[in-house]
Structure to design on (580 residues):
């Protein structure tokens, strides 16, 4: 099994157990070791009082991409400290893409950046997540590389 | 009109226009100038693949509390850079409370801290949001203090 | 030995070994369990190209206050992720005070806020530091409470 | 004048006025539009009570690189919210390099990432800075591209 295949197996396992990401309207588009891409189309129920996408929805999309990237080695990994910078508002109907890539992994501590763009490629937000690996695997079945 | 009455009027106006916060399951519990308290009960559709509340839901709750606090002077205000530190996981059925209080406001730049606790008072997350005031009011009707 | 006495013993030990904090021009003003206050007067060599105090000097002052607060239980503790928000510039001759107070400590993870003010009480910066406790003590001598 | 030549002119102007960066022991190694590289060798007076480089010194190095990158278009630009994640400690004698590159610039708001490495290429810290452009130029002389 290649690292990418293992990442795919873990992601399939996580996705099947994840009730929130589908509820938000997310789809998992790509997965690899230390990388994940998720998408979401901004719907009416995602809009805040200014008529633009609620920042929590944009954050959640980035956070799910971060989680799929962090857990891709089949080591249970959780978020510790996440930051988001809002660059441009996301409008109703926008097709958002969150691309996560791990930038460092030292011992149990990882750092993963996620860029959220819309259908024109404009940057909506930049997210940086600091993770910590726990004991235990995401997926107990044999999926070693 | 007192500052608290103005904050209530702005919040009523924002809440009526906000589709996302009710969709998440939030309720607005308290409002004052530079302060807001929102609550949410963790439901099955809020759970991630680890069976605990998705970080994006916790963030969104804090982010809404932040937004209600920031806009409480009836000046349109948006988030720029928000950070969240996860302290303890939120479990299914937990009743979460996000309490926002502005800590500084200098010119157009504000800083607001939000603590998210559960029904036992345990801290679930600490959120810090940096905001910027735009031109224009949240609510055009006359609600001056 | 009270918690405050232990904090003082640890701080004395740390200060004696710390070459950077005195080099910056810092002084340790107060110490208690989970709390520390440090001061620094802005000198000519602290100024950046805009003629105001270099942000790194303000950060360093807050970071030292954070470190003294974090280590006050005599458990070796290090910074993981620190954020600073600049509120007002610090001018030459300003007397800066950094007041650190631990806001959460859960297992090995702590969160400590530091407010930097000047001699008029104006807020210069707000700092938030996330720490992690390591194995080992700061000070090996017997200083149990 | 090319963008790189303008960046060099602005940097020369800033460096001549900057008392803090040389005092820290920094050197300016490279400059271009939206990019800057600074270096510093960890000296005895940079060490904290654990015998490793004080986090404020690492932050200051990254912060100076950030400032040179942000101001490279000759528009006065200041830091608003900076975050640093410490990856590995920096040891006495380490030769640190901070490489800053602007990742977004939208209106007056910019985001610049800085990676600090040592002489072996190991990552010491990751810094992310959010800036805001003010009215006015860094350097009043004619240096238009």
């Amino acid at each position: 099994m290649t690292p990418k295949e293992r990442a795919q197996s873990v992601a399939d396992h996580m996705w099947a157990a994840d009730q929130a990401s589908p509820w938000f309207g997310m789809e998992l588009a790509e997965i690899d070791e230390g990388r994940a891409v998720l998408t979401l189309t901004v719907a009416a129920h995602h809009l805040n009082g200014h008529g633009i996408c609620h920042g929590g929805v944009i954050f959640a999309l980035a956070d799910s991409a971060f989680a799929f990237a962090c857990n891709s080695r089949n080591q249970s990994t959780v978020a510790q400290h996440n930051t988001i910078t809002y660059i441009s508002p996301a409008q109703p109907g926008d097709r958002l893409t969150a691309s996560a890539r791990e930038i460092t992994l030292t011992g149990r501590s990882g750092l993963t950046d996620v860029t959220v763009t819309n259908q024109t490629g404009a940057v909506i937000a930049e997210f940086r997540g600091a993770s910590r690996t726990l004991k235990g695997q995401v997926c107990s079945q044999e999926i070693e590389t």
Summary: The first strand of chain A starts at residue 27 and ends at 32.
